[in-house]
Design a protein that fits this description.
- The protein is of the alpha+beta class.
- The chain has a domain of 76 residues: 2-C-methyl-D-erythritol 2,4-cyclodiphosphate synthase (60s Ribosomal Protein L30, Chain: A, 2-Layer Sandwich).
- It is 19% helix and 15% strand.
- The strands form four sheets. It has a two-stranded antiparallel ribbon. It has a two-stranded antiparallel sheet with strand order 3-4. Strands 5-8 form a two-stranded antiparallel ribbon.
- Helix 1 packs parallel to helix 3.
- The longest helix is centred in the C-terminal third of the chain and has 15 residues.
- The radius of gyration is 21 Å and the shape is elongated.
- It starts with 32 loop residues before the first strand and ends in a 7-residue tail after the last helix.
- One of its GO terms (biological process) is terpenoid biosynthetic process.
- It comes from Vitis vinifera (Grape).
- It is an enzyme of class 4 (lyase).
Amino acid sequence: MAMAAPIHASSITKISSTKQIYPFTSHYRPSSLVLSHTLSIRSTLRRPMVAAAATTAVEAEPRSNSTAPSKSLPFRVGHGFDLHRLEPGYPLIIGGIDIPHDRGCEAHSDGDVLLHCVVDAILGALGLPDIGQIFPDSDPKWKGSPSSVFIKEALLLFAHNAPAQTET
């Protein structure tokens, strides 16, 4: 896989279909670009795709031939990751479902790895710290809490931190 020089987020805010975005010679044009969390471009020789890390905001603008102002749709992407050790004596809860098993996720809360990933993705899209920093296991308030509480709290944070939507 060929690596290009790192780029800055400001240089990828808008990609036009008529603008050449490949810094390669005309005989080598990758058919897709993947943007990693370190903001360096990698060629994958597949369909066009741009992926970004959790805190990267991407603005999508529809192609238009008219001179009317475009209605852009801002969106954010967040990636969640969670990991718990399976130990005897703990419940195994995944996606809010209690799964009968002799081991479960050792955790300060209910250890629901799926909902923890969703919370991490929401927090990451907002540019906030991960679930362990927002809901620390050192805080007795969260001891044994169902992960649905973290989802509700993350959605409240979203409501307070999301960019305002304007109608045009």
